[in-house]
Amino acid sequence: MKKNILCTVLSGLAVLGFVGEAVAQPQINRSAYFLGGATYRHELNPAFMGERGYVSMPGLGNLSVGAQGTAGVGDFLFVKSNGDLMTFMHEEVSRKDFLNGLPNRLKMGFNVNENILSTGFYAWGGFNTIGLSIKSNTNLSAPDQLFKFMKNGVDAPEGTRYTVNDLSILSTNYAELALGHARQINDQWTVGAKMKFLVGLAKATVKIDRLDIEATPDAWKITPSGAQAYLSGKGLIVPTRGETGNYDDSDYELDANGNRTDKLKPGSAQLISYDDVDFDDKNIGPTGFGMAFDFGATYRLNDEWTFSAAVLDLGFIRWKNTVKASMNNSFEFNGFNEIPIKSDLGDNDPNSIDNQADRIVDDLEQMAKFTKDGEG
Description:
11% of the residues lie in helices and 44% in strands. It is mainly β.
């Protein structure tokens, strides 16, 4: 699959990143919180002390991947009678089965934490930790109206309207060097703290206050309000269609007979060309710096009861190298592609789960009409 499900949303709706915004809290495997011998339990509470020292190396350390949300994978992927997977956009998935399972507002988070190098040891009156890691946190908030539009849009009658309110995506990606110390104060109290030095790698967010969507005889008319996007990443290349010449048929005006002319629609040259977004290999580097702190404590009441509390990732990253885009004018969208019935084409099957997801990516990219600010 050329793009994963996460990129489906990010590339389809563009990106945004505010300077000085607080660091998102990573989601670590919470089951380790109650396992006294878990090596990386200090990442959940810096007051937790290891039973012994440890050293981890690249590829052999802790890798945690998490997902949280008001909907599950089963709400978007369905199983056919033969065991094959299909997305919710497949025509064999009924509108009722898909839409009845969605909450009024979909909130989802995806988190990855990869420890590159880390160590823990007893010294200086307590337990000390040093860790270098890469972290990625992505959060999506969208109303069910967006997915109703995607599922019902192709066959909706003229005059059908959808209103999509408060759509937002935030993705932060950074490196972290953490120095921690925990010590036992007495038989009851243990306290700990961490100081973290943060290096921003990339940040992407989109915020759309409102999308008014109306069916017309030939296309959907989409009117945005309060739509802005930012992307922070050193070496990131975000060209417009005018810079690359990579235009779509929908960028051209039509004549009286509905045929495409050679005249571009106003503003088409300033639209972001998502297919050409890339990184300059010779210019990749940090795109922000910051600092964060963890504080924690445990209180042992007796042999049966121990209470603990922690505040994690209290800090910031100041981002730079930011590209800004906005969506100001109404535009037309031809609708989402239908998913064909499965055929016996093996890896070339247009209904494979990979090809279905890729098709959704392409449709979302066509719906995203963000223009780079300052491009005329």
